[in-house]
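Contributing new records

If you add data, match the layout below exactly. Sequence lines come first and carry their own label; structure lines follow with theirs. Keep one chain per record. Anything else will be rejected by the validation script.
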Amino acid sequence: MKAEYMPYTKPAFEADFQKVNSSSGQNTSSDVAWAVYVGALNTPLKMQVFGRHIRGRDGEIIAKSQQGQAGITQDEMKNFKHPESESADSLTGGSILNVPEWSPTINDSWICGGVHSRQPFHAASPLINDNIFERTFVLTVTGRELVGLALAGYRKTGGDPKLGVVFQSTQTAKAEDLTLISYNTKIAELNTEEKARAFLKKNGMI
């Protein structure tokens, strides 16, 4: 099923991706990022699930780290996949980003895909400090995802015991205007925890 709105053509997407990639020093494939974007945009499940991916010693996703950080569980990996696929990978119709080649910009591409089709985003990890902020990069991946949703006009609309806190699109124009460039620019601006926390609080994300 195709989305009704698709702001990115492939050439426009690739141009933005290359600009962000070169400015950040990343070296990942625009083909993978485009596939992630289209997969998220057109997922049959019409929803996305985000949260920490915590891996054990064997690389498998586990529910909690030794420090007690909570992440996406194996149950969620099974529940939010396309019926015909083996995993929840968004490239195969699922609603969780889980690809071998990963980078912040590929992650941003996934957020853009879900946002541009105005899907709800379900937080699988508790929205606590340890899951949002960290010392080296200011924001965890989950924190970065919350920034993207805030930029796109998403707001917290409640919770579900099984699905966690839900964020819904409330401003179509903001959702359609989110690009890899605007996303990356805002992340660069939020270069301290104080700034990032203030932005997320102002937008009702935490």
